[in-house]
Amino acid sequence: MCGIVGYTGKRQAVQVLLNALSSLEYRGYDSAGISVFEQDTIFTVKTKGRLQNLADRLKAGHIPASSCGIGHTRWATHGEPSDVNAHPHATAKLSLVHNGIIENYQALKNSLAVKGYTFLSQTDSEVAACLIDSLYEGDPIEAIRQAQQQIEGAYSFTILFKHHPGEIYATRCSSPLIVAAGEGEYFVASDIPAILPYTRKYALLKEKEIVKVTPDGIVIYEGETAHEPVYQTANWTVEQAQKNGYEHFMRKEIYEQPQALKNTVHPRIADGLPAFEAQDNIPDGFWKRFSRISIVACGTAMHAGMVGRNLIERFARIPVDCDIASEFRYRDPILTKDTLVILISQSGETADTLAALRLAKERGVTTLAIVNVAGSSISREADYVIHTYAGPEIAVASTKAYSVQLSILYLVAFKLAFAQNQLCADEVRKLTGGLLHAIDQTPRALFLDEEIKGYIRRYETLKDLFFLGRGLDYALSMEGSLKLKEISYIHCEAYAAGELKHGTISLITDHVPVVAVATQQALLPKMVSNIKEVCSRGAQVLLICKEGASIDPEIYDHCLRLPDLEDCFMPLVGVIVLQLIAYHTAVLRKCDVDKPRNLAKSVTVE
Ligand code: M6R
């Protein structure tokens, strides 16, 4: 959370910073600010609210003709969203932007107060700025190094020192930061989309490395040694990180799912069987080693994990736990040597998931990460990594990342089933073929777009809604419910359909809307009974089922029919419908679809 950028080169820094921040706004949008060198001083403007407020304020006032500066877009942790808590935080000697949380900030603040420092904001970040200011005696690298020894917590800092015009200093610890090189211009940023309009040449900073960025190049200081970055080329394009005519990123990303699925799955099939050797460097023998699996993730990624648990247990007959990462850490999980811990994350930076990964590694068990962002902390630290190829996901609400995570979990389940002799090659080939067929059918779920838009008009003023499902449909309902509440602010709950009668059915009265996800043929009779139970209490049911399912029309208000796939593949088409329900409801209610309130795309604090 929080987006950081730094620029030094030949262009107008203010424009570059605003442009880059617009690509990072998904990381937080409580406030925005910039600092740039202007003659022999540092000029800072910051303001509460969206980046547009900052741009407006700059336009209305003064735009310095500077070619070096830093910028920040904030997701508030310490101190409310306000002008004063916005970054950059300036002292007499420097200006600093921060992403992360400084855990011992109160102790540092107390000792800095004794030295005469006063604080304008409630942030931990201003404490870091004052600490570095107090340690600075002419050498920025030395001041940062000494500060690192005192700071506990997570940070990436980008700093301008007043007496070093044209130069940017930066460092990181448990928060992401990259450097990038263009032609005679250099960048620091939290994430790749910020630099794509200018260059695709970037390098990841390692933990606690300190970097000096000047118009002549970049030097990385690591302990006593200094070296140039080892660059890689981003395979994401500017177009992928832009809306390309779509009204919202979320809509664009929903529509990108069929292609993202193909990109992720096709390279991992050889001779009709799942194959992870060439693409992911995972030897075939790997899959034979485990007799327990623990899937750990947060939010949407955890919902993908719930589907994965079902698939792995069903096909490979290996017991699987699926945990919310923030719970996993603190319940002292039983991790035996034959356990495989699978971490799932789009960003690869989610603090809770990263902490769970570190715990698993401390306990000496094997870790496998399913990650979208290459080079992210989780992808670097896990023993094995399978990268999903969704491309950049910008909307805060995760859509295509979920689908590609599912697709990998299908392949993993089939691979485990084969490796552990639960299924023979022909059976696995049939399943893999089924997966490819399901992916080909995903555009048909998108065809329901207009029908969904029409039906959900009645959700404009809704307060509550319930999702019901059984088995895989329950996992899917959890995702549908999260998506809807996240972007439309409607209170909704997902229930295992059979569980409703144990309490929650008391909330079902006349006209209460229920989305009944009933795509599992094997569970259909039971599901129909549960739908009848809510119907007879007056619920208004939107049914989601297979094309061919024969269901009494008396029990639903409207029915959305999905392509008739094998039960196990229905989540791939079902989720698209749930995403579209959430999307259209949010648009109808005039919500900020891509940047829902209080949220950030990448949750790098615990
Ligand atoms: O980057 P990650 O996949 O680790 O993020 C996990 C969750 O924060 C994320 O899925 C969140 O729940 C989404 N905003 C939901 O749409």
Can you lay out the helices and strands and say which pair or pack?
Blueprint: E1 3-8, H1 13-24, E2 31-38, E3 41-48, H2 51-60, E4 68-74, E5 89-90, E6 94-102, H3 105-114, H4 124-135, H5 140-150, E7 153-161, E8 168-173, E9 178-181, E10 186-189, E11 201-204, E12 210-214, E13 217-222, E14 225-227, E15 232-233, H6 249-255, H7 257-265, E16 269-270, E17 273-274, H8 277-280, E18 292-297, H9 299-316, E19 320-324, H10 325-328, E20 339-345, H11 351-362, E21 366-371, H12 377-381, E22 384-387, H13 400-419, H14 425-446, H15 449-455, E23 464-469, H16 472-488, E24 491-496, E25 513-518, H17 524-535, E26 540-546, E27 558-562, H18 570-588
Parallel strand pairs: 18-19, 18-20, 20-21, 21-22, 23-24, 23-25, 25-26, 26-27
Antiparallel strand pairs: 1-4, 1-10, 2-3, 2-4, 5-6, 6-7, 7-8, 8-12, 9-10, 9-11, 11-15, 12-13, 13-14, 16-17
Helix pairs in contact: 3-4, 4-5, 7-13, 7-14, 9-13, 9-16, 13-14, 14-18, 16-18
Bound molecules: 5-amino-5-deoxy-1-O-phosphono-D-mannitol.
